[in-house]
Every structure is written in C-alpha cells, then in structure tokens.
C-alpha cells in the first residue's frame, strides 16, 4: 500500500498529509497503517485523535485498530486504558479476538487485578467466536508465575500441553518457539524434541531462537551431551549462534567443563557490542575465580579489560585482579586506572592490596 511505503520512505509527516487527501472510502483501507505508525512511534495523542476521527466517519469496523490501541497502551505503561478500549469495542459491537483477550488479561495483571484476569479468561471461554489456544494459556502461566501463583500457572501449562498435542501437525511455523517454551516449562523433553524435529522439517529459514529453547531445556535438565550435540547440529544446519546460544552454553559448561566454558565465554563476549545482553553477575565472578585459581593472569587481564570496556566491572573483580597481579609481581597502574575510570571506590581491604604493591 502506498501509505505504508510513504511511512517507510518519507516518514509520518508526509504520510499524514497523504492520508488527509484521500476520500473517505480510501481512508478506510489506509487508516490501519497510519495508526500502526503512531503505535510504533508511541504517539498516544495522535493515535487517540485518529481513532476519534475514524469513529466519527464510521470507519472502524474490525478489531485490528482497537488491538493496536491496546498494544500502544501496553507499550506506554498506560495499562488502565486497555479495559476502556475493550468497553468501546463492546459498545460498538466489535468482536474481541484472541489477541484482544490476551492484551486485556496482561493489562489487568500489570495492575495486579488478578481476579479480573480470571474473569476475562472465563469470558473468553464463553465467547463462541474465539478459540482458547496455547498462546492464551501460556499468557496465563506467565501472569500467574510472576504473581507467585505457581499452582495456577502449572495448571494453565498442563492444559496448554494438551492443546499442543491435540493440534500437532497443524501448527503454524511462527508458533513453534512458544510451543517449545511451554513444553520446556513442563519438563516434557520428549514432546519438545518431537515438536522441534517437526519444525526442522517444515522451516524455510533456520531460526536459532527456536533451537535455543530446546538447548536451554537440555542444559537445565543436566543433559549436557544432548545440548552439545544439538549445538553442533544447528551449526551444520546453518544456524547462526546469538548471545542467547552462548549464554546457555556458557552457564551449562560452568558446571561441567570450565575450559569449554571459557571458550564459549569468549565467543559470547564477541557479540556484546551488538546487543544489550550482559552475563549474570554470578557467571562473571565464576570465570574470574577460575582464572585466579589456575593463576592464569593473562586471561584474567584480557577478561577484566573486556568487562571494563563494556561497563560492568565491579570492585570484586578488580580486587581479584589486584591479588593476581601482586602474586605475579605485576604493576597495578593499569588496574588502578580502570578502577578510576569506572568510579570504583577503593575500600579498606582494597587499599591494603594497593599499598602492598608499593612495598
């Protein structure tokens, strides 16, 4: 559509001007791309104004625009406005979709209205036009788990598991990852493996995010050999490891093979500059402890410099490097310079280490 192309090439201002020039009949087709543009830009004021205008012209005849507004309110943390959108849909006799119900439940959960979450779910069950699928049940599990209602979350997952098995063989490509996440949470590794193999047979592009779900399930369940075999298999299939792949392998190997964990850590750190991922604090310290234990000051120096470069060095790490430097009779000047740049305060026991270099 021309309006979408205008947004992509020339921006929202020209798209707005183009939209205003359209006749009412053409505006009906063009309104959703314009609204989506406002949602992407989180421009609540313009999105609301457009909805009012479209309503006045009688152009909102399906749920898509309302779902976009709910998405906007969720992304801008205006959770209280989501139920108001649902009210408007009901008033205008616009049918709710599965997405509408999921957004409504999530908004209530964000407001800690867990009683209303269940009310929405029951309403969805009674809606003959909507089928409760695994995505809704997975949404419920996430809501209940975050609220500490583990039993309710597990119950939702068990129902989701039955739903997954009932529709196996008819699963859309884009749903495989969520289904695998659901099965992994339930600990149903055998079924997860079957679904994964089915995905492999049907996929057009090898998405590493899908295989990473099974990789993580293997590692969490202590199935290291299977995890390693799967990793090699994905590489042979042309999968491109991302930060999540390295994180899973790194944390899994920490428990069994530190040499291999160090190898993976270096690969994982190579993608740090391209994403916001940062390893867990415990993982960072575990590698540093390993270098100290094996008196590997060269790797320790490299390690702290990388961590310093990406801005998540800590006093604990610097103390460890100071101890190693002192033991190897190295200069502390570079370490102290990095500490100063990171604004790390030198406390009493660290000060004693620094003074020891001067003796």
UniProtKB/TrEMBL annotation:
InterPro entries membership: PPR_rpt, TPR-like_helical_dom_sf
Highest taxon in the source lineage: Eukaryota
Pfam families (UniProt xref): PPR (PF01535)
GO CC annotations on file: mitochondrion
PPR repeats: 207-241
Keywords: Repeat
GO molecular function, one term: mRNA binding
Protein family: Belongs to the PPR family. P subfamily.
Entry protein name: Pentatricopeptide repeat-containing protein
């Amino acid at each position: 559509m021309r309006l979408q192309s205008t947004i992509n090439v020339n921006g929202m201002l020209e798209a707005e001007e183009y939209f205003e020039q359209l006749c009412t009949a053409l505006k009906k087709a063009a309104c959703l791309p314009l609204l989506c543009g406002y949602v992407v830009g989180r421009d609540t004021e313009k999105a609301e104004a457009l909805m009012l205008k479209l309503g006045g012209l009688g152009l909102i005849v399906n749920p898509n625009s309302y779902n976009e507004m709910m998405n906007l309110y969720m992304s801008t943390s205006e959770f209280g406005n989501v139920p108001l959108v649902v009210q408007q849909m009901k008033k205008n006799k616009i049918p709710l979709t599965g997405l509408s119900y999921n957004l409504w439940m999530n908004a209530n959960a964000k407001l800690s209205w867990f009683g209303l979450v269940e009310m929405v779910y029951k309403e969805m069950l009674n809606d003959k036009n909507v089928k409760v699928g695994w995505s809704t049940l997975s949404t419920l599990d996430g809501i209940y788990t975050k609220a500490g209602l583990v039993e309710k979350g597990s119950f939702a997952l068990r129902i989701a598991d039955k739903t997954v098995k009932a529709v196996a063989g008819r699963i859309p490509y884009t749903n495989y990852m969520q289904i695998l996440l659901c099965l992994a949470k339930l600990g149903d590794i055998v079924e997860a493996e079957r679904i994964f193999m089915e995905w492999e047979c049907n996929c057009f592009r090898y998405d590493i995010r899908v295989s990473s779900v099974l990789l993580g399930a293997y590692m969490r369940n202590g199935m290291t050999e299977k995890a390693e075999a799967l990793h090699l298999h994905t590489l042979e299939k042309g999968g491109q490891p991302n930060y999540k792949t390295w994180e899973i392998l790194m944390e899994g190997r920490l428990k069994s093979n530190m040499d291999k964990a160090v190898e993976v850590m270096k690969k994982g750190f190579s993608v740090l500059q391209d994403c916001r991922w940062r390893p867990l604090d415990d993982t960072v310290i575990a590698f540093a402890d390993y270098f100290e234990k094996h008196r590997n000051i060269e790797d320790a120096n490299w390690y702290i410099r990388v961590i310093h470069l990406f801005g998540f060095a800590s006093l604990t790490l610097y103390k460890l490097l100071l101890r190693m430097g002192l033991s190897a009779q190295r200069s502390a000047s570079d370490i102290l310079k990095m500490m100063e740049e990171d604004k790390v305060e030198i406390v009493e026991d660290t000060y004693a280490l620094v003074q020891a270099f001067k003796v």
